[in-house]
Design a protein that fits this description.
The complex is a heterodimer of chains A (310) and B (49). The longest helix of chain A has 37 residues, at 253-289. Chain A contains 11 helices and no strands. Chain A has one domain (12-309). With 310 residues, chain A is mainly α. In chain A, α3 runs parallel beside α10, α4 (76-101) packs antiparallel against α10 and α5 runs parallel beside α10 (253-289). Helix content of chain A is 77%, strand content 0%. With 49 residues, chain B is an all-alpha fold. Chain B has one domain (11-49). Chain B has one helix spanning 10-48. Chain B is rod-shaped and about 75 Å long. Classes of the chains: A mainly alpha (310), B mainly alpha (49). Chain A binds chain B through residues 1, 77, 84, 95, 99, 106-111, 113-114, 117-118, 121, 157, 160, 163-164, 167-168, 171-172, 174-176, 269, 273, 276-277, 279-280, 283-284, 286-287, 290, 293, 296, 299-300, 302-303, and chain B through 1, 4-10, 12-13, 15-17, 19-20, 23-24, 27-28, 31-32, 34-35, 38-39, 41-42, 45-46, 48-49.
């Protein structure tokens, strides 16, 4: 019995086409236009910088979500490797521009170059957790195991990005604030977020019953997600050492290209990672739900029952 | 730091990029390894059934 007959329909490139088109348009407005602008050419069809950034971000996220949910998880790995490759390429180009081409910032000097990995990590960690939140809600309504696997994947990858976010922020804090860490509202709420979702991953390890595990972790994810908007608004609500959120109006044009390239790079990488991790979760679930081998007739019934459950 | 301007700092920049690259690379490798392991476990399970 092969994966296609158990878990999903035959895969074609045509199925991936909407996602590819969305990502291509996002890439055009996200960094082809910025690259042209960087070299003195205008390709923006008269759109303001804010509109370009908005279109790029919206379509980029839609494209990523399309790949995450449009198909069965059994088909995920082959698209995941493509997205990971694309993400690595964007990260290489973006980091090259960020490290060697973009000018140093007036006050922070060379240290500001950390922004090109720190800010994309933050944006994508929040996006990943938002996807986990959506998966949790959908699972509670539909009880479809694929959404439980996607939630596990999204939480783990977002925790890795949130951990990286804290490391990069700490490295940036030392030369600019003079300390590695401060119990500042933005840093504290981010640390709470990291540990809350680490706790949910631990919860999933400890609970053996798949249904209880899925329901409890979905509810915990919905509760923990409350911290995401708190992290975002913490710099607005309280006095904070951390700067206010950036937007195209507050970032110099010379900084757009590496920032956007790396943001897309980490988005593609994160999407590919979530797809792989969700597939791992699904395969583990398959083993948990499969009946113990007894005899051939009973085993056949067990596989059919699994097919209905998953 | 000189008159409110951070000078130098390339060491911090390289540290941040190295940590990021290393973490993403290692995490990616663990994912691929874990996926292969789970696939082979499921194949063995299906064969035994």
């Amino acid at each position: 019995m092969n994966e296609t007959t158990v878990n999903g329909s035959p895969r074609t490139l045509g199925r991936a086409l909407p996602g590819i088109v969305l990502l291509a348009i996002a890439g055009y407005f996200g960094f082809v236009v910025a690259l042209a602008q960087y070299h003195g050419t205008t390709l923006s069809f008269g759109l303001a910088t804010g509109a370009q950034a908005g279109i790029a971000a919206m379509l980029g996220v839609l494209g990523a979500v399309y790949f995450l949910v449009a198909d069965r998880l059994s088909s995920a790995p082959k698209y995941a490797y493509g997205l990971i490759g694309l993400g690595l390429l964007c990260l290489l180009v973006g980091s090259y521009y960020g490290l060697f081409v973009a000018p140093p910032e007036t006050y922070m000097g060379q240290v500001q170059r950390i922004m090109y990995v720190h800010v994309p990590s933050a944006w994508n960690a929040m996006l990943g957790l938002t996807f986990a939140f959506v998966c949790a809600v959908v699972f509670l309504f539909k009880t479809d195991w694929e959404w439980d696997s996607r939630m596990e994947g999204a939480i783990e990858v977002s925790v890795v990005l949130a951990f990286l976010l804290c490391c990069q922020g700490s490295i940036w804090a030392k030369p600019t604030w003079g300390v590695w860490w401060d119990w500042d509202p933005r840093l504290t709420t981010t640390a709470v977020l990291l540990f809350a979702f680490l706790g949910i991953l631990a919860l999933r390890k400890f609970v053996e019953d798949p249904m209880k595990r899925a329901i409890w972790s979905s509810v915990a994810t919905i509760i923990a997600y409350v911290d995401v908007p708190i992290v975002y608004f913490s710099v607005k609500w309280w006095n904070s050492l951390h700067q206010q959120p950036s937007n195209p109006g507050t970032v110099s044009k010379q900084f757009y290209l590496p920032l956007r390239m790396n943001a897309f790079g980490i988005l593609f990488l994160m999407t590919g990672f979530i797809m792989l991790r969700a597939r791992i979760a699904q395969l583990r679930l398959e083993q948990e739900l499969a009946p113990p081998p007894v005899d051939e007739a009973q085993a056949g019934e067990g596989i059919e029952a699994y097919g209905e459950a998953v | 730091m000189t008159e409110g301007v951070v000078t130098g700092g390339w060491g911090f920049v390289w540290a941040a990029y190295t940590v990021t690259a290393a973490a993403l690379f290692l995490y990616g490798v663990t994912l691929i390894t874990r996926l292969r392991e789970e696939k082979s476990r499921v194949s063995r399970m299906r064969e035994s059934q």
